[in-house]
Amino acid sequence: MSWLKEICWICVALLSARAVIGAELPILGWWGIPEDKATIERYIEARQAGFTVLMQGASSPEKTYELLERAQSAGIKLSVFFPEIGHDNMEEAIVKLKNHPALFMWHIKDEPKYADFAKVAETIRRIDAVDGRHPCYVNHIADASVSMGVPDYAAYMERMLREFKPKLISADFYPCRLADTARAVPYRDIGNEVYVSPKWYRQLEYLSGLARREKLPLALFACDVAHNVIDYVYPVPTVAMLRLQMYSNLAYGARMLQYFTYWNPNSNTPLKFHESIIREDGTRSPVYDRVRQVNRELQARAFVFMDSELVSVEHTGAEIPTGTRRLEKLPPYVKSLTTPDGGAVVSQFSGSKFDALVVVNRSPVREMQLNIALDSSAVRILEDGTKVLAAAYGGAYTVSPGAAEIFVMRR
What we know:
The protein is an alpha/beta fold. The protein contains ten helices and 21 strands.
């Protein structure tokens, strides 16, 4: 197959994806710009970092409208919340705001406990009655514990589906952690002590299966703000940590990506939030440029995920994560695949114009060797979105920590 034909069919697939799902992969920044600092310039800054949506609080519906206007000018959308949501005069405010082009969704609740369910469900029903177009957003903690009032996580999520009738499933789990010994120096990025939670992929398996069963979009997170919890520390993320989280999310079928957080939350708490994308004083941390780099890469390759459906997700390596499946069957255009010195997530996608194979290095700190034999017409999607025949590279790849190799094959 000629290079020209190869590029042409990929372009057709790209246009098809944009028509069905939208121009870009939704990338949301949690804990967005404080109301008193939410200028057009600040929204442009977020847009330049690759965000398409920001979580935005406001003191009133009138202020919310003003912020929507500013966001629209910057080419960004908002997931909004304001005091009236959940209260008696909510419907009037929803009607006034629901047709604004910068509105992305209504932010209702984060990590609700069982005791919150009745109120959350009632709020969603009321909003859906006057605006059935924009999703009501509720985020759920993955692997919720008894401390959250959740004795059985599967039962918790099934009840959520019954009562909330969501338009998407959102859940957070932050896998890249430092050992407790880092507490003495919480503001230092100690990359060589990073480990990945052994529970993470088990949760991705569950959430991905649930979203596919319900035919709902899946929205998953990467943690970018360093902070402390009871048993460990979330470090200042490297590019590799961000890639690992986001590519694994996509490999498990996520259709929206989220960062916790955009603006730094209150640092004067036991969690000691620090070095988010934008610090509390409004300056950029080193994470801003890291996130911008990763977001550009994700958008450049987004068409692979936007116009395809997840077929399977499996793992390689001497040991595979708990609750996952070992890679056994390869697609017809892949003759062999091995990762002799590491482990990978291997996902197969099927689209209207092409099939795709995504291989993610599971390590946030070590390179991985990928040996793969492909059909001669398979195309490699580079990090900047460039499409090149994979045969030009042979069959040996060195995959950077947390990074992904993506190959597509015309159907």
